[in-house]
Amino acid sequence: MNPIYKPNKPLAHIQKVLAAIFFIAFNFFATAWAAGDHGAEAPATAGAVTSPRISSHSDLFELVGVVENGEMKIYLDRYTSNEPVTDAKIEVEAGAAKGTAAPQQDGSYSFKHELLGQPGTLAVSFVIAAGKDTDLLAGDLVITDPHAEDDHAGVKRPWLRWAAYAGAALLLVATAIAVFKRRRGKVVASIFIAAGALVMGATATFDAQAAAGHDHGEESAPATGGNTPQRLTDGDVFLPKASQRQLGVRTISVEEASLPTTVELTGRVVLDSNAGGKVQPTQAGRIEAGPRGLPQLGQAVRKGEVLAVVRASSSAIERANQQAQSAELNASLDLARRRVDRLQQLEGTVPQKDIEAAQSDVLSLRQRAAAVTGSVSATEALVAPVSGVIAAANVVAGQVVDEREVLFEIVDPSRMSVEASAFDAALSANIASASASAAPGTSVPLQFVGAGSSLREGAIPLVFRTVPGKNAPPLSINQPVKVTVQTTSQVKGFAIPTGAVVKNASNQDMVWIHTGAELFAPRTVRQVPLDGSTAAVVDGLKTGDRVVTQGAPLVNQVR
Questions:
Q1: pLDDT score for 426
Q2: What pLDDT is attached to residue 521?
Q3: Strand ordering across the sheet containing 53-57
Q4: Closest CA to 382 of 406, 413, 417, 363
Q5: Is the full-model pTM beyond 0.85?
Q6: pLDDT of 22 higher than 70
C-alpha cells in the first residue's frame, strides 16, 4: 500500500509562481498577436493612409496641397468665407522645384515635379495673386516612403514570430516538467520557464509597440484614416477640400455685438383694407364672361375693369308676374297716350293743366314699363374695386351665384397685412422692428401699424404691414407665419443665419466651427431668434470663430 502523499510546500510555492509567470507570458503573447494582426478587422484608422498634405492660411486665403504620385493638387479658398478661388495665379517653390500651378476644370490647381515623389521633408512656399489681392503662404511638406510601413507590420522580421512560438512551446514543456517531477529537475525547469517567459515578453512587447506606434511621419493627418470624409473619435469631422466644394460649405467669421432681444409670435396673413378688395354681386344670377374673359388666379387687373357679368335669373312665377305687370303698364300707357291726343285736339277749350297732367301720366307709365321689362333680363357688371392681382376666383362661366357671394379677391402683393397675437400688453409699446417668416431661413420685413384695444381669445391683436423688398418671398392670404418682434432691449451675442444651427445626438442646438483647413469641430450653443433668418448666439462662441453657415446639415451627417 502506497504511503499517503504529502505535498511539498516549497514545490507547491514554485508551482504557483510558475503558473503566474505562464499566465502573464501567455497574455503578452496574445496581446502581441492581436496587435500585430492587420487584417480586415483592424480599425479604419490603422488600415487607411492619408496622402501627404500641406496646409497654410492667412487673413485672406486658405490653401491645402495634396500630393499623389508626384503631383500636388492645390485647393485655394477665401479664409473667412471658404469660397473657392479659381482665378488665381500660384507660384510654387518646393526645395529645388519651382513653377506655376496650372488651373484645373474642377477649380483646383496642379503642380507636378519629380521631387514630390521622393521621400523627405520639403519647405514649400506659395506666392498667390488673385485680382487685387496678393499673399505669401508657406509650410513644410512631409513625404514618407511607402515601403517603410513593412517594417512596422513585421514583414521583414519573421524571426520574432518564430521566437515567440518557440518560447511558448518551451514554457509549456518546462511547466509540465516542474509540476509532475519532484526531483532536482525542477530547478532546471524553472530556468527554462524564466527564459521562455523573458523571450515571449520581449517579443510581445516589441510587436505591440510596433503595431501601436504605426507612425508614418505624416503630421497633418495621421488620425484621419484616409482621404474620405469621416467623423473622428473626438467628435470632429475630417472633410477634405474636394468634399467641401461638393457640399458647398461656406463660413463666416463671427464678432460679438449688442443685438436686440426678440419675441416670437404666431400670426397669419390678412388682406390689407387699403390695398385689397372683394367682388360680390348685388343680385342672384348667371355668370357671363367679361370683355377679357373670366380672370384667372395671379392675373393682374386694373381698378374699374369689368371682370364678369351677372345676368339676373328668376323663377317661372316671378317671370310671369313681371310679364303680366309689364302688359298692364303697356295697356295703361296706350290709354294715356290716347287721352293726351284727345285733349290736345280740344286745346283752348280745356284747361292747360289737364293736358300737362295727361302728358305726365304718359311719361310715368313709359318709364315704369321700361323698368319692368328690363328687370326680366337685367345684367350687372362686376368691376375691380382696386388694382392688383387675382388672389381668389370662385366662378366659372354659366355658374349661378347668389347675391353677396364673394366671387373674386384682389390683392396687392407688395402691400399685405399680418395679424399676430400677443399675451403681453406692454409689448406694443416696446417694438423696435418686426419680420415675418413663412419657412425656415426666409424673412419678410414688417412695419408695426397698431394694436387692438380688446382681447381676442385672451390675446391682444397686433397688426403689421409688409414692407416691399427685392428678395422678400411672396405671402398668401390666411397663410400662417411666425412673427419675430425685436424689442428696444439689447443683449450681447453673435449674429448667425438660422441655417447654421443644427441638432446633435442629444437634440441640443449646435454649430460647426471650421477649426482647420479640413477639420470641423462641433460646438453646443444657446441661441435666441433675431428674425426669421438670423439668430443670436449668446453662449458657445467666441470672436473670430469661423461658423459654417451653408452646408452645416451635411457636415452634421458625416459619420
A1: 82
A2: 92
A3: 53-57, 61-68, 71-78, 109-112, 102-103
A4: 406
A5: no
A6: no
